[in-house]
Amino acid sequence: MSFKRRQFLLFLGAAAGTTAVGVRGQGQSLVVSQTAQAASPPGGFLPLQGPLPYEGIGLADVKQLDYYSRYQIQDDLVLPQGYTYDVIASWGDPLGDSRVGYNNDYLSFVPTGPDEGYLTVNFEYISADTWSKTLEPVTGKVLPFAEVAAALEAQDGEVNAFELPDDDPLKAQIREISKEALLDQGLGVISVRRDTDGRWVRTNSDADRRISGISGLEDDRYLRVTGPAAAVFIKQTGQGYMDSLGAFVIGSFGNCAGGTTPWGTALSAEENFQDQVPEAVYADGTAFSPREKAFDDGIDGQGNVLGLSCNKYGWIVEVDPSNPDDFGTKHSWLGRYRHEAVGIRVEAGSPLAFYSGCDRRGGHVYKFVSSNPVTNPQDKANSQLLADGMLYAAKFNPDGSGTWIPLTMDTAVDPVLPSTVVGGMVTLPNRPEGGFIKVEDDAVAQAMKQQYGTLGDLYEGSDLEKQGAILIDAHFAASAAGSTTTARPEDTMVAPDGTLFIAFTSGLPGGDGGPDTAIFQGPNGEEEYEYGWIMKLMEDSNDPAAMSFQWEMFAAGGEPAEGGLGFSNPDNLEFDAKGNLWMVTDMSTSAHNQPVPARINEQGETLSQKELLGIFGNNAIWQIPTTGDRAGSAYLFGYGPMECEMTGPYFTPDNTTLFLSAQHPGEVNGQRQAMAAETRSFAMQTTDGVPFIQAREVPIGSNWPGKNPNDPPKPSVVAVRRLDGEPLS
To answer: Region Disordered: which residues (predicted)?
Structure first.
């Protein structure tokens, strides 16, 4: 495949296979690319070489064979020449009256002055094995892991602790572990400032605090609810489980991506809540019993022993970081599903438009439109607009057009047909039993259309309660209404001109369904495409409240020789001040640097894309220009420590700092012992498809961010900056 962009990067004199060296300076790590200066760097930085050849480095094939024959992965946040990072906070550090949580994800920065502000940090989940093994050395807490593990082994790996007698010692032990795990999830507010040396440091203000998965359980820090779901929560009787708390909610967990409003609040997206509580609800919106999600040997089912009501999780949470008494509001008009992000469009004179995706295979893309318009985008009263409006789900057409389907009682039932989906399965509401069913036969979906005329016919209660139940069951209601099943929608980010960018991380089918075969195809027409895409969506007439739109694929992951840009599994998105799109990747941790000695297995079969993921190395940070002659090209800015996911990119208004989260370093192999590493073999190909073998040195486990031998790995928040203090790009 020929280069799509002009060659702009000259490599001079670097030793073959040497990519980066670590240099310590003033207590920080500066990782310097050993390639030479770029003749015309695209974003003010010298793109990293990375383990996989890609067109952005501008190397001819003959040079690629030389430069990429050996590669050394670093257990560090590897950045271009002239850039460094400050570690702001790590798991276990004090925060308010609690501690910094685990697996930090989205970062919101709300300035309070030129060089200070509030970071609001999501804490998504615990990586059970590494978390349990490092909890004591990091926090000093000792939990009964061994005792509970023995009990679980004797009971096929799970225990329904919800129904154990209150005086059962096992119940108390499971409760102790579950509370500690949920404490390490949720959100945190961290006040920061830039010191005279340019470093970002904590200031520990009175606003610093935690909102955890158990807020409200043993204190008065309940979260609140707005919108129609509250009508379901306050009912006195119903078909399913009710926690007697009404519109109060215990905690927030599964907090993945998010957004930041112009009026200074942070939005946190509850994603994989189904790991801790049931997902299924009844037709009246009430919850399935906690017994349906037992506590297991992966430390999932944390809500079981606490009796958490599942219909209260899977929402968007809004928090004002400047208000120390604000512990979060869940806005039910934004829908309950596996939220991955919030794309925010706020324009004076127009309604609010908030976009989000349901991160599952076969998940939908959604838009909330407020009933009333915005007057002043900076007015904190805009939060009240989230309490009234309409939630829509996207229907994409193969011709590049699309429409928004309202999730309301009058919307016709017109289910997604399994035959249109990769993998041939969709999930639809199950009636009359409640919950959902997996449908593989078009006739079953068509029978639902014949039996139920509208979404209102699928749900029960008063009109307000029915609307609440639809929002509580949003994913399955959207499937019943015919919204397009997509390829794991991750981040949704609105560009300054109003264009929505959507990261679709993987086009493979799975247990939740798969993407529409007519919409999601790889560069060569592949219906199953692991590496993902970034889509552009333009509202008709550029109107935030438009009911129709145009869409096109902007970028595709994958190997350059096969039509991709050199990355895999795009996730969080962010724009810099120049309009460049920044993206971090989310490859499955278990695939990182897994050897690929040959592309054909012992049976003579070509490896699948999923089996090839190891060639991409660690999860990484990329810049993709959106305008000019380099629009749509990708440039590697950095990659993360071992077995981690880089998340939460957020720029300061002056573009001199990029805040990032490094989530779950050492998730698979845990604590790196005695700086262990091994050399692995990879069957690679150049950007033009010439095959070669790469010998890659791979650290085993992680010691980041301490980086000393045998340091425990700790998820951490960092501030990336240039050493000269200039804007990053």
So the answer is: 700-729
Q: What is the pLDDT of residue 42?
A: 61
* Nearest-10 crossing angle of helices 169-183, 145-154: 120
d(CA 488, CA 328): 27
Assess if residue 553 is contained within a domain: no
Looking at residue 44, what is its pLDDT? 81
State what percent of residues in the chain have pLDDT above 90. Answer: 93
Taking the C-alpha atoms of residue 243 and residue 254, their distance in angstroms, rounded to an integer, is 20
> Structure tokens of 549?
């739109």
Q: Which helix (H) or strand (E) holds 446?
A: helix 442-451
Residue 41 has pLDDT above 80, yes or no: no
Choose among 69, 128, 6, 120: nearest CA to 666.
Answer: 128
Alpha helices (H) along 72-168 = 128-139, 145-154
Using DSSP bridges, classify how beta strands 351-357 and 365-373 pair: parallel, antiparallel or unpaired.
antiparallel
Paired residues of 182 in beta bridges: none
Residue 311 and residue 229 in contact, taking contact as beta carbons nearer than 8 Å: yes
The token pair at 485 is: 């099943």
Residue 382 pLDDT more than 50?
Answer: yes
Residue 363's nearest CA partner among 296, 465, 279 is: 279
Query: Into how many domains does the chain fold?
Result: 1
Residue 215 within any structural domain of the chain: yes
Compute the C-alpha angle 576/350/581, nearest 5°: 15
Residue percentage of the chain with pLDDT more than 70: 94
The SS3 call for residue 66 is helix
Q: Where are the beta strands (DSSP E) in 322-400?
A: 329-331, 343-345, 351-357, 365-373, 389-396
Instruction: Say whether pTM exceeds 0.90.
Output: yes
Answer yes or no: is 44 within a domain: no
CA distance 22 to 77: 10
- Quick check: 57 and 691 in contact, CB under 8 A? no
Q: How far is the C-alpha of 550 from the C-alpha of 402, rounded, in Å?
A: 6
Query: 128-151 pLDDT, tens per residue?
Result: 999 999 999 999 999 999 999 999
Chain segment 21-40, per-residue pLDDT in tens? 333 222 333 333 334 333 34
Tokens of 436: 């959902």
Separation CA 245–CA 101 (nearest Å)? 26
Nearby residues of 325 by Cβ (< 8 Å), 6 or more positions away = none
Across 13-27, 334-348, 398-412, least confident range: 13-27
684 vs 11, higher pLDDT: 684
State which residues form the domain around 308.
Answer: 96-226+248-278+297-326
The better pLDDT of the pair 19, 93 is held by 93
Three-state secondary structure call for residue 557? coil
> What are the tokens at 350?
């127009």
Cα–Cα dist 492/530, whole Å? 19
pLDDT in tens, 636-679: 999 999 999 999 999 999 999 999 999 999 999 999 999 999 99
Is residue 427 domain-resident? Answer: no
The Cα–Cα gap between 292 and 51 comes to 44
CA angle 461, 465, 469 (to 5 degrees): 100
* Distance, CA of 721 to CA of 80 (rounded, Å): 11
- Three-class DSSP category at 136: helix
Mean pLDDT of 462-487: 98
Other residues' Cβ atoms within 10 Å of the Cβ of residue 578: 16
Q: Which two tokens stand for residue 336?
A: 């309950």
Token digits of residue 320: 């004002």
What does the mean pLDDT of the chain come to?
93
Residue with tokens 């073959």: 16
Omega of the bond prior to 544 within 30 degrees of 0, cis?
A: no
Other residues' Cβ atoms within 10 Å of the Cβ of residue 19: 22
